[in-house]
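Give me the 3D structure for TetR/AcrR family transcriptional regulator.
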Amino acid sequence: MKEKIISKASELFLKLGFKSVTMDDIAGEMCISKKTIYKYFCNKEVLIEESTSLVHKQVHEIIDTIVAKDYNAIHENFEIREMFRNMFKNNTDTSPIYQLKRHYPEIYQNILSHEIDQCNRYFGVNIEKGIREGLYRTDINIPVYVKFYYTLIFHINETTVSESEAQKIELEALEYHTRAMATEKGIVELEKQLKKIKV
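Predicted structure for TetR/AcrR family transcriptional regulator (199 residues):
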């Protein structure tokens, strides 16, 4: 039952926002009593912590699945962006990350420290791959570019209230990041990926 509650709560938090969803909402959606939820979680904050851990785990499992498909480095980044877009497409248009930072800053900071470690690893591996494929320049200072990109992405999500607006800016950030690193071959691949989105 505990896992079912976490799963349903995660779904509702991402769809409606961390602040908006109440314990009553979760109980109502699951056709159980609020008392049943409190049997497993002493308060909403604990449930949010468990839910964000689950979402974090799911996101990184999906990223690993995309990476395993062995797309080229630029295509891979666009596939990951699409995965995030699909994950948040039913959202009521208030960015869940913005809400989490604003209303539950301690939980947000805890997630952020884990995310930065994961981003460092993933973005670094992606840049190395792109260099090997001739899509990114060989003279890139990888740690600096990784830091630029995750700072940009986290800042967008922390400060943009609207999820759809955040996604538009994230696409611009991805294009900006890719153009900053790309060789001529990389620019051709970037234009190809951008064209697919506009179709």
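Residues 2-198 form a domain with the Tetracycline Repressor; domain 2 fold (CATH 1.10.357.10). Let me know if you want a second pass.
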